[in-house]
Amino acid sequence: MSGRLDANSGEGGGSVLADRLWLVPTELERQRLQQIWGSRWSAPPPPWRLCGFGPISAGIVTSRLLAARELAGRPVSEVVLVGIGGSYDLSQARLGAAVEIGSIATDMVGAELPVGGHADMPPAQPGAEAGQSGLGPWQLPSELGFPQMPQTWLAAAAALDGRTGLAPEGGTGHEVQIEIEVDVEPGSGASSTEPIFESLVLPGSTGAKLLTVGIASGSEATAAGRRARFPGVLVEDMEGFAVALACRQFGVGCRIWRGISNAVGDRRVGGWRIDDALQAVVERLVDSVCRELR
């Protein structure tokens, strides 16, 4: 399938592509997205910007790019993050398919519990319970009572701009839960100043649950553990939560698509379906975000 798209639309001929911030983690993904786009559509591809590999770079770079656009008087209407990801359930997130994300959790911030799994126990010995180099059970930010983003930042973002598309999501699937109740209708774009712990929802999307990690799962055992900690999680990536958190701080909406290149835990990269996954992402972008370009 191929098509002809008009890159300009809206009042005054403003560019639909330029109004958004288009992010991709790695140069490999960016090059392949550009090649696939160019082979299927006559319009120029979105101006992909690299956010970097992993959550730390992704959060910092997204914040810097959003701040630069604000200072230049060209605020971003929406951030669109795309790239490859792993599937926790191949029957629902198939290899080579594109999955839109509706909520995000992160499994990279918290505190390990001592031996026995109770906070009042003595410190764990090196390698205890989890092998010589692995972690034992740990608590997430909501269980510790420490939000990742202070309410003061969120209140400032809400006061500056009502466009925010992110709100905290309650519940972690752990024995100890701190529920965060937020009255946000899907698609409303309403802002919230509730503290953000380890979960966010993306109003306007009824998509899958994404888990952002600092170290990608390298075994079925690790994948199974994360599925148990985060019931309903479908896709794994390494940038989504950080990008969404930056968007939340700036009061900007966020959309995320991940092309499924592999099963979570499968590190045999030679067998990953990267091109199929990114081709599906391009088609979804044209059908959804870039519908105005038709």
Outline the fold blueprint.
Blueprint: E1 20-24, H1 27-40, E2 49-50, H2 55-71, E3 78-87, E4 98-106, E5 111-112, E6 138-139, H3 141-144, H4 151-160, E7 167-168, E8 199-201, E9 208-212, H5 220-229, E10 233-237, H6 240-250, E11 253-263, H7 274-287
Parallel strand pairs: 1-2, 1-3, 3-11, 4-9, 9-10
Antiparallel strand pairs: 3-10, 4-8, 4-11, 5-6, 7-8
Helix pairs in contact: 1-7, 2-6
Care to give the gist of this entry?
The chain has helices at 27-40, 55-71, 141-144, 151-160, 220-229, 240-250, 274-287, and strands at residues 20-24, 49-50, 78-87, 98-106, 111-112, 138-139, 167-168, 199-201, 208-212, 233-237, 253-263. It has 294 residues and is an alpha/beta fold.
Sum up the structure in keywords.
single chain, 294 residues, alpha/beta, Rossmann fold, 7 helices, 27% helix
**Rg on CA atoms, Å:** 20 Å
CATH topology of the largest domain: Rossmann fold
Show unreliable segments.
Answer: 4-14, 121-133, 161-191
Binned, the helix content reads 25-40%
The chain-level mean pLDDT equals 78
Largest sheet geometry: 5 strands, mixed, barrel
H and E order: EHEHEEEEHHEEEHEHEH
CATH top level assignment of the largest domain: Alpha Beta
Q: Biggest sheet: strands side by side, in what order? A: 3-10-9-4-11
Helix vs. strand class = alpha/beta
Question: What's the β-strand tally?
Answer: 11
Helix count? 7
The end-to-end span amounts to 14 Å
| CATH architecture field of the largest domain | 3-Layer(aba) Sandwich
Overall tally of domains:
2
- Global morphology: globular
CATH superfamily of the largest domain: Nucleoside phosphorylase domain
Kindly estimate the percentage of residues that lie in beta strands according to DSSP.
15-25%
